[in-house]
């Protein structure tokens, strides 16, 4: 328990500030641009929902939901993901037949935090979903294309693992798994990316699956290979061909394969029969995006994005069905990768530093010229220029130069120049190691100040490039 | 209580989507730009804090804090404002001696919602605070300058009402209010902007303040006038001049007045002795920004921004003192004003619509050319162009034209043209009511497609201007 004077953030949460926050915002902007190109419109929902909206949507994971205390009024809980609030919104908005929405927001899970791996109790998700009735697999293919574009933009090498719930469930049926055990078997199989088959097999036996059935399950889900070959091998297996669910999935995946080629992303997609996804609500295509370059993944973060088709979730609210397909980007994990890379490359701080530092100098009678510095500051602020000055009545010269460290341009005020209606503007030669001559600056009138400052800022930018 | 099938958001919360959300984001961007020009650096804190962090900071208002349920572990509550989390962060970060931070985030209050007036239980605040030891009133003046710049940017006419806690408390002392009743009297006086003096006087009597003392309080706090005249009148009053607190406040306000003139914002600032601010933690200058144009304020939203100096809050955490001054912008109220104006002016939707619609046409044997449409889409997406196509294998011509409503450029595919390696690009003359000739389009090669589409998009933008 926290003592009264404990100044930490709650377990599994953190503050974001400075370069970290600016990098995170850059990530959001990059993703937002791509999603907007794909017709995405933003949605923002409350951080808590009526408890009834969240209940019975998450299976075993529901124990991780944060509840608000009962202080009278409605029973509410913090959102666990962005999919269920989206489905709630869709269910209520019967006027919306087709929508591509995205949401970048924090979600809450009372999980064991693993900070080093970028797993917290409060973390950001970025979801993109396409809702509406369309010809099969066209929106699904576009979502995978979006995933490819996002990680191309971040220059992170990834593989998109895909599978199909109907193929998987059909396999389990053919293998002899009882219908009511299919989700339990599925969640055991989903661990195959972290655990060897022997362990998964053990879990199946513990769940009451007979030896022989478990072995047949293993035979199916451990197959891998190219998408086309895999699909052909299923179609040539008489037992699988006789299973309606398998063949529906095969038809979907055959369409998908051709669409992915047309969209130029087929080479980044791999058919992985062991991919099952934990959540109950998926009904068709499912996928996870994994990082392939181990340099980017020293802490072995799991999937960096994941999703699938969920055609029945909106209908669960009893108003109307609406098929959906979506993807959730684990943006905190993207942050972990890009931040590690930034630190390795020793990239400069992302902060928006001051562009101009306003100084004042004088002799014995020097009064600090504070009001004059304020007037100049307002003039520059009004022009949209990031200007600072010492918040001291009589600043020392050295203090002002120290504070101007890293600032490219100085505006220098002196009593004599002011009386002549002029100020000195000057490059501070920051980061310009080749400069052999020191800029002596130039005297300009107050009317020309903004124009001259802009010129110097431009030349400073050019030198940095 | 909500029924199981209730699809609403919790009381006092709402979804944000479409033009509303885009407008809200524009507001955030405008404010962020100004705060960044003033050296602001962003901070993001968790949505909930340890309960001990929030306790004893809000006086009577603490009853409005949302608590998380006890599910084991730490006792936590949703943040009530952004000031206390900032103070908690500052108290812990002893390496930070000076900082200008801003935070735009949702805060939570179990208040009676007044949706029409833009008052909700979940709402955004945007805070800008300057922490650190500086010469008196320089950061305070800059904060008021920031407030002026923000509302200038939104073209909302405002008045910034200012007062000083020390002057107010000194008045109360001189009037004969017992020390331990000063905060109670202060919170009654703060109601003078909504209630007549008689009602406030009644409240003072109920709070046990003698008649004569109440009348003297009324005599002080109902004075108004220009800043300089008011300050001179205090200084010429022997009883007030003898009160140390009043004179400290007068010295601060005299400095402030000269700084506001230098920054060119004095004409928007009014000295209002009845302004008291509810929260306990203010120690010096306090201010509220009110909308002056009634056309912008039909629902009589109260203050649209407010804040003050709070030099002791960081020290309350027992680590170190650090003086701070800050302002909180009620961005949901800004939204209410700008949205009403947008609807009155019937401004077009803010949505980022598609720039290009990809269509396919053909005769009897037409197969829909879906894969070709996908290839073209990927080419345009890769170039950062917002492109769409019908998610149908064989779309009808009319369907495609309907879907392209409002889209400025079309790329049209036909089997013959494709075989010749070409596609047709064409302006759709959207919104161009003066066009007398219909654009017949031009055939371009796939290599030139992006270049030609960009040209057409530019010409479309020029025509709209």
Structure description:
2 copies of one chain form a homodimer. Chain A has 2 domains: 18-344, BirA Bifunctional Protein, domain 2; 356-464, Rossmann fold (3-Layer(aba) Sandwich). Chain A is of the alpha+beta class and 465 residues long. The first copy, chain A, is built from 16 helices and 17 strands. The first copy, chain A, has helices at residues 18-37, 51-54, 83-92, 138-153, 165-175, 182-189, 197-206, 211-221, 227-235, 238-241, 244-262, 331-344, 370-382, 397-403, 415-419, 449-464, and strands at 16-17, 41-44, 48-50, 76-78, 99-108, 122-131, 158-164, 224-225, 269-272, 285-291, 305-309, 324-329, 356-361, 387-389, 409-414, 422-427, 442-445. In chain A, β13, α13 and β14 form a beta-alpha-beta unit. In chain A, strands 2-5-6-12-11-10-7-9-8 form a 9-stranded mixed beta sheet. In chain A, α1 (18-37) crosses α12, α6 runs antiparallel to α7 and α7 runs antiparallel to α8. The interface between A and B is large, with 97 and 97 residues. β2 of chain A pairs antiparallel with β1 (16-17) of chain B, so a sheet runs across the interface. Chains A, B: Its EC number is 6.1.1.21. Chains A, B: Keywords: Aminoacyl-tRNA synthetase, ATP-binding, Cytoplasm, Ligase, Nucleotide-binding, Protein biosynthesis.
